[in-house]
Design a protein that fits this description.
CATH class: Alpha Beta
Strand content: 5-15%
Order of helices and strands: HEHEHHEHEHEHEHEHEHHH
Structural class: alpha/beta
Number of helices: 12
CATH architecture: Alpha-Beta Barrel
Largest sheet: 8 strands, parallel
Number of strands: 8
CATH superfamily: Phosphoenolpyruvate-binding domains
Helix content: 40-55%
Radius of gyration: 19 Å
Strand order of the largest sheet: 1-8-7-6-5-4-3-2
Oligomer: single chain
Distance between the termini: 21 Å
Length: 272
Amino acid sequence: MSVSIFRDLHRGPAILVLPNAWDAGTARLVESLGAQAVATTSAGVAWSRGYSDGNALPSDQLLKVARDIARVIRVPLTVDIEGGYSNDPQAVAQLVAQLLAVGIAGINVEDGIESADLLCRKIASIRDHAVRLGVDLFINARTDVYLRGLVSPEAAFDECVGRGARYREAGAHGLFVPGLRDPVAISSVAEAIGPMPLNIMALPNLPSINALQALGVRRLSAGSAIAQAALGCASRLASDFLAGNTNEMFGAAAEYGTLNALFAQQARAMTG
């Protein structure tokens, strides 16, 4: 059921806005604020587990985070698996099969600096495993053509759209293009990829949500921005506290009882 709901969220009428979470606490928080689905940020998850971002997180740590989040939320969950933490398509598919057992609705899987051929093989393997398991899954293929400048600016559009078509043929359902910010380019990519919903990442000075919707964007992700902001705030407050300023952190704090109640409510729901 959650997968069908998640698919429908990509069809409108409004953009699916995902304030990416990185643990059970932040996932439950964004759900309580009205998020229609919860997406993880690979960077936030990795940092919260004591690892760097960039396919360094052990897969067992990812599974623990997914289980923790699935336990406390009732909206669909989509998990960022970076490049799948392996260049072996079968190993990536087996990781996704473990995540499916947790009850996820979707994944993000990316090409990064690797070849489009490799991501196609990973997507096809994930799709085939899901079919054999009889489980539905929304596969969001991320291409880093714009984010990493994989080709010249003049060639970026054709490269991005070409990869999108190949990923769709391999079994992807959506296309995530972080780094895409120019309105003309956004509109052109959205139109060119046809029925694949376009997902972009929030960036400074991006057009408004209403404008993005008019340009054809179907999904907007915060990426690691909220996790970075939270850690930046924690860094500032901790530095102030170490310097003897004991009052600043109280002004920035969420109310204890309100936060605690989020999890008491979930505990009652699970036992009731």
